[in-house]
Amino acid sequence: MPTDDEDARERFEALFTDHYPELIRFAGRRVGRDSAADIVAGTFLIAWRRFAEMPADHARAWLYATARHVIANELRSRNRRERLSARLETTEAGWAEDASGPVGEQLRVQRVLAGLSAMDQEVLRLSEWEDLDVAEMAIVLGCTRTAAKVRLHRARRRFAARLLAAEQPVPNQRVTPPVVTRSRSQA
Fold first, then answer.
1. Is residue 108 one of the residues assigned to a domain?
2. 50-85, pLDDT tens digit by residue?
3. Nearest-CA neighbor of 23 among 135, 132, 142?
4. C-alpha to C-alpha distance for 185 and 187, rounded to whole angstroms
5. Residue 28 belongs to domain with CATH number
6. Is 95 inside a domain boundary?
């Protein structure tokens, strides 16, 4: 008969096997492939330490929420390092964008997505890239299902409007000088 420790280890190993690949993709899209493994390792370390607190029926969403917090910590650390580098003036002059990377439509979508608020970006990524349903998104975002559904609807609407605006060519507009009128006291 397995002990509680053996049972917990087996459940954790199953959780790891089931969700590791999708968490790697989730983290990779946010912090890059180089840091994704560290993010997921940190996520599963927290999951192991807090395994008894993890809701069994929403383990996937709990892992995404935890990964999201680990990613936020990583991004804050990166920002601190970047500010320090800028202060010390040790950063390179600039990076040339690789022309062989994503082009056309992907770049346009990325530009439009980057123009949205951080919350809109996160809601759209959770829905479209991570394929989380509204209930799972609510757990990850720490809000109600209704709030998650409303956030998703509004984010999609804003994204669609900006994407449509990005497609429209800017018409040539003539700038007409303002009409200057004299008041009676100047006449």
1. yes
2. 998 898 899 999 999 999 999 999 999 888 888 777
3. 132
4. 6
5. 1.10.1740.10
6. no
